[in-house]
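Key idea: predict the complex, not the pieces.
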Amino acid sequence: MFFIMIVLGIETSCDETSLALVSDGQANGAAKNAPALSLQKNKILAMETWSQLEEHRPFGGVVPEVAARAHLDKIMPLLTNLFRKANLPLSAVDAIAATHGPGLIGGLIVGAMLGKVLSFALNKPLVAVNHLAAHALSVRLDNPAITFPYLTLLVSGGHCQLLLVRGVDDFLLYGETLDDSAGEAFDKGARLLGLPQPGGPAIEHCAKQGVAARFPLPTPMKGVAGCDFSFSGLKTALKNKIMKQENFAVADAAASLQQAIGESLKEKSLAAMKKYKNEVNNSTQPRHFCLVGGVAANQFIRGLLQDAAHDEGFSFVAPAAKLCTDNGAMIGWAGIEMLRAGISHDIDYKPRPRWATTDLNPSRQLHNNLQQI
Ligand code: KG4
Ligand code: ZN
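Result:
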């Protein structure tokens, strides 16, 4: 049994400034903020997001200093709008969850400092959230049926990982990319094809008019055992083919790139599902496969992985599209999950540009490493 808890989530790790007020939605405790809250069914009470797309467009990619300055410009107006939209006072917040890594340090400092100041001024706990863990936990916001352990494919602009999620701070890495992430493959591919950034949505849109078979590309890491990915060769293959083939339809190339990325994600996910069945759960207990991160917004890839999961006897869950790309709600939700598990952080916890999901709880990590020997 939990009391209704409201957490402010703060996300500033890359190029979205996003703040959200998230409640744990449990109505079986005394609602401190009743009656307004007891009427709220939705766990996301309000969310305000500023996407820095236009700021970075002239540079063709995210520029860290431009990102940090844009976070600084936008974060206070967003905070004011957020509370106005939710019709709640600052004092309604029970805790503050701010992304502390991994990501671009300038942006992380802006968000983490706002979190620390509010935590200090309101005398409420601070949760230093790992951005990747927040993506992985985001599936539980709308799906209470997803219980630990579950398998997750995290596909974003910076990461591509297959993870066994055993608890809020207990992640086991099944495989990851050896070079570029799937999101990077979309973004770099879009650049080569003259499509706008971010490349993923642009490729997905363009691919709808194309036929992949008219512009065949190799499936990365096809037939290679294990759960690791590699996407840098796909970019080279696309570049070489564009240079060799004078007449081709951009839509065909986009469809083929999307298919090659999707097939590779599917092959390694199937390997991870088999590993999970062998090592974790070969019983009739429910098995869950979750798809998270910006690339999870792609409908074609969602379809491929949903079919693969069902074929292997897993349920398939992906967050709503607006919760796939970076957002404050997943950070607020991760804060709720961690507070429920008794985890909060000192106010001087430092933002970390590099922070692996397997390094959330150092003592547990040592135990996991020993188990794998
Ligand atoms: O999770 P995210 O918003 O930020 C990071 O943490 O990196 O992911 C951004 C990535 C970008 O590479 C973007 O091109 C990709 O997600 N993405 C997509 C789609 N929407 C965003 N990729 C494929 N299809 C989409 N619809
Ligand atoms: Zn992300």
